[in-house]
């Protein structure tokens, strides 16, 4: 019997970079919709600004390096970086925050290291770390969630605040802004208040932060979709979340008045987003299976340490960047044994 064969390659790749990045963007949609509901349309402005600046810097750097625009400009890697960065921004952060963040993310963290596949650090977290260090006041101006707000800024009000850096005349920061749950916890514990007392504030929900619980759950839903589609492996998310629970439970049991509970850690801030979408970056993370477990555990431990002892309420970005530095060594120490040895 004669078989006819097509020309090589006979087995096409299952996923391209663009396919994987599109899946990541699809998986982020539920969390973005929740963010939009609880904190208003400002998040859409932040995404649009970050994506615009990211693509512009991507094109400029490709031209400067003598690389063709295609396929790099359309592989969605810069878009994913921009969206992840924007999801960490206060909804009404001025436009130049996104510009600065994308400058550090795309130009410095990505292209100066050689472009996609060569970056040592997660570009989105480099951009976020740069702006939170440089502009702490602007990065602390978070809006009150919908349940506690007399009225979230509308489309026009958000546009004015973001593009001019000033609120419309009828609005004041004291009226529309609120400390984040993690910030309230950190400030309260520093003032020698009990965690149980701090959690009586309306900014807290049943488990974590009001509104942030739903956002975290929907990011987790998107993360499960990525696991189902085999875009990411289970090692980093499971190691991150399990380590947070394992480390925070004994601390909480020993000192519930000064240590938040495990659900408070998980359902406040960007921990779930980081576990499924940021720490799973295949370029800046680990490539071995055991290495990914160590990487996720390290992100969890460093996040908890920064939240408790550091100067920032949420230490996820710095934890990821520190583990990015350790990733090459972790991969070297966890190389699988060569067959036959």
Topology at a glance:
Blueprint: H1 17-39, H2 42-64, H3 77-86, H4 95-110, H5 123-134, H6 155-164, H7 173-176, H8 181-190, H9 195-198, H10 212-228, H11 235-254, H12 262-266, H13 271-278, H14 289-309, H15 316-333
Helix pairs in contact: 1-3, 1-10, 2-3, 2-4, 3-4, 3-5, 4-5, 5-15, 10-13, 11-13, 11-14, 14-15
Describe what you observe in this structure:
There is one protein chain. The protein has 341 residues and is mostly helical. The protein folds into 2 domains: 14-178, no CATH class; 179-332, no CATH class. Helices cover 59% and strands 0% of the residues. The protein has 15 helices and no strands. The chain has helices at residues 17-39, 42-64, 77-86, 95-110, 123-134, 155-164, 173-176, 181-190, 195-198, 212-228, 235-254, 262-266, 271-278, 289-309, 316-333. Helix 3 crosses helix 4 and helix 11 packs parallel to helix 14 (289-309). The longest helix is centred in the first third of the chain and has 23 residues, at 17-39. It is globular and about 60 Å long. The mean pLDDT is 89.
List its traits.
341 residues; 15 helices; 59% helix; 0% strand; globular
Q: How many individual β-strands?
A: 0
Strand content: under 5%
Share of helix, binned: 55-70%
The low-confidence runs, each spanning 5 or more residues with pLDDT under 50, are none
Distance between the termini: 42 Å
Structural class, from secondary structure content? mainly alpha
Structural Rg: 21 Å
Overall geometry comes to: globular
Order of helices and strands: HHHHHHHHHHHHHHH
The DSSP helix count reads 15
Number of structural domains: 2
Largest sheet: none
The average pLDDT is 89
């Amino acid at each position: 019997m004669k078989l006819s064969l097509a020309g090589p390659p006979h087995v096409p790749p299952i996923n391209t970079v663009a396919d994987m990045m599109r899946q990541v963007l699809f998986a982020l949609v539920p969390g973005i919709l929740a963010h939009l509901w609880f904190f208003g349309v400002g998040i859409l402005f932040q995404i649009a600004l970050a994506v615009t600046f990211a693509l512009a810097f991507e094109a400029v750097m490709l031209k400067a390096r003598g690389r063709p625009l295609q396929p790099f400009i359309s592989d969605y890697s810069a878009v994913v970086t921009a969206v992840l960065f924007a999801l960490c921004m206060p909804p009404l952060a001025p436009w130049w925050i996104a510009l600065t963040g994308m400058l550090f993310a795309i130009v410095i963290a990505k292209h100066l290291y050689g472009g996609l596949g060569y970056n040592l650090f997660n570009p989105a977290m480099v951009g976020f770390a740069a702006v939170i260090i440089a502009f702490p006041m602007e990065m602390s101006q978070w809006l009150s969630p919908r349940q506690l707000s007399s009225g979230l800024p509308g489309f026009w009000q958000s546009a004015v605040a973001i593009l001019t850096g000033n609120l419309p005349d009828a609005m004041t920061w004291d009226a529309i802004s609120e400390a984040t749950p993690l910030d309230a916890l950190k400030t309260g514990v520093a003032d020698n208040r009990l965690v149980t007392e701090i959690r009586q504030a309306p900014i807290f929900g049943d488990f974590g932060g009001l509104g942030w619980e739903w956002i975290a759950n929907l990011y987790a839903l998107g993360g499960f979709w990525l696991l189902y589609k085999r875009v990411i492996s289970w090692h980093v998310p499971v190691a991150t979340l399990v380590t947070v629970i394992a480390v925070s439970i004994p601390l909480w049991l020993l000192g519930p008045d000064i240590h938040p509970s495990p659900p408070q850690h998980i359902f406040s801030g960007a921990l779930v987003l980081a576990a499924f979408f940021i720490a799973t970056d295949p370029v800046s993370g680990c490539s071995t299976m055991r290495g990914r477990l160590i990487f996720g555990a390290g992100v969890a431990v460093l996040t908890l340490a920064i939240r408790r002892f550091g100067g920032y309420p949420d230490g996820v970005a710095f934890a990821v960047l520190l583990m990015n530095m350790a990733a090459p060594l972790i991969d070297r120490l966890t190389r699988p044994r060569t067959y036959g040895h």
